[in-house]
Amino acid sequence: MLISLTVGKVDAGVAVLLTEDKRIIEFPSILLPPSISSGSIVDITVSRNHDSEDAAQRSFESLQSSILSTYGQQSPIAPVIRCRNATQTSVVLEWDPVSLATAELRSLSLYRNGSKAGNIPKPMEMTSTKISGLAVDTDYTFYLVLRTSAGTYSSEKLTVRTHKMTDLSGITVTPGRMAAPLRENLSAAVDRIGAKIAETVRIDTTHFVCMEGQGREWEKAVEMNIPVVRPEWIEGCEREGRLVGVRGYYLNADPKLRQVGQGVGMQTPQQQQFRQRNESQSSPQTSNITQQQSPRKQEETPSASSANLRAANQPPPPPSPSDSGSPAPPPPEKDGPRQQLPSHPPPSNSSDSDPVSPIEDSIHSPSSSDAPELSPPSGKADEQKDRTRPPQLSVTESFQDVTL
After folding, report:
1. CB distance 166 to 88 below 8 Å
2. Is the Cβ–Cβ distance between 90 and 106 less than 8 Å?
3. How many CB atoms lie within 10 A of CB 359?
């Protein structure tokens, strides 16, 4: 195909060519003859190169096949999470090694109850982790999220429930240095409580049991913050029937801090019934002892009710002088102390027709050391005496409780 074009302008790099219908075409000036200038007419022949097109197409298809076989046959695999061990306050999770195929790793994150708990350090190397500080007997949901250059992949959700205090199956013990008989007793006790023994310190090891702090495994347990306890701790858990504290069972701990006594959790039903029967039988005996001790206290300290009872049994007071018409004796002195007298007056030897006993004389006659009484004005003396005089009590009524 032949095309005639008019050169409009020639620069160092680009030449402007005009078609017959006045269209402008930019053309590399290096491809034009050297003697071309503005106004020159050039003929350009255009043809299609089929051989070159076929070669380029074959090269492109080969490249696409190579990319597909290298990067398109495999894709990252979603992680699979499992529970390795659970205790009262911790959970150990594990998963398969991360498979990325040809993708690049961005991150591997752990989620707990829908919230991000953190990123897994060194995800291409680590395949387990331990979560501590959980609540006792509580459900938790965990899952992993893998982020790669090829996309994001999530694992299935895993629900784990922490153990109760009486469930000892989550204990994993690693024994340290101890005598052979003690090691056998430890293994038997671990089997009885349903726990496990690991010969080496692992991520799911909960306690390191030994008699002395030496050895490579002991150093590893201390580095991983695993409690190092004595064999008596297993015996304490078996005796109490529950997970006991480790404070009193450290290698250098005071034995007084240990929990002593059989727990209710490990008692047989016969032992629990015997214990309840003893408590029920001891309650009536305690109440009988209290009832026997209470009257003794009442005898030592008379109450107000007993005083009122004695007052009710006393004879009524004699009639007042105003009713009988006889002159009333003078009132007793307020400041003078009363003399304790016997309940019955002694017989009098006087020959007077109206004798006055020493008891009455001591009550009604004023003391010589007291000041003389002042008599009220005449005419109102009897009225004021009747108004201010207290009721008179007989000698027998006033001093009934006095004993010589």
Report:
1. no
2. no
3. 16
The rounded distance, in Å, linking the Cα atoms of 212 and 177 is 7
Q: What is the mean pLDDT of residues 2-11?
A: 86
Q: Distance (Å, rounded) from C-alpha 148 to C-alpha 129? A: 21
Q: What is the pLDDT of residues 338-375, one digit of tens each?
A: 444 444 444 444 434 344 333 334 333 344 344 434 44
CB 62 within 8 A of CB 70: no
pLDDT at 130 over 50: yes
Rg over CA atoms, the chain: 57
With beta carbons less than 8 A apart as the criterion, state whether 61 and 54 touch: no
SS3 assignment for 295-313: HHHHHHCCCHHHHHHHHHH
Separation of CA 62 from chain center: 67
3-state secondary structure of 29: helix
Cα dihedral 308, 309, 314, 318 in deg (nearest 10): 30
- Give start and end residues of each alpha helix (H) in 224-369: 232-240, 269-300, 304-313, 321-324, 358-364
- In the DSSP assignment, the letter for residue 166 is T
Angstrom distance (rounded) from CA 86 to CA 215: 27
Q: Which residue has the higher pLDDT, 259 or 52?
A: 52
Cβ neighbours around 201 below 10 Å, total: 21
Length, in residues, of the chain: 404
**Tens digit of pLDDT for each residue in 139-152?**
999 999 999 998 99
d(CA 270, CA 277): 11
Half-sphere exposure at residue 45, Cβ-oriented, CA atoms within 13 angstroms = 2
Q: CA–CA separation, 396 vs 18, rounded Å?
A: 158
Closest CA to 207 of 240, 241, 249: 249
Residues 175, 189: contact at Cβ < 8 Å?
no
Question: For residue 189, what are its two tokens?
Answer: 């006790």
CA dihedral 196, 200, 202, 205 (to 10 degrees): 40
Q: What confidence category does residue 272 fall into, taking pLDDT thresholds of 50, 70 and 90?
A: low
Question: Cα–Cα distance between 312 and 21 in angstroms, integer?
Answer: 148
Distance CA 192, CA 271 (A): 19
Query: Is residue 260's pLDDT more than 80?
Result: no
DSSP secondary structure code for residue 139 in this structure: E
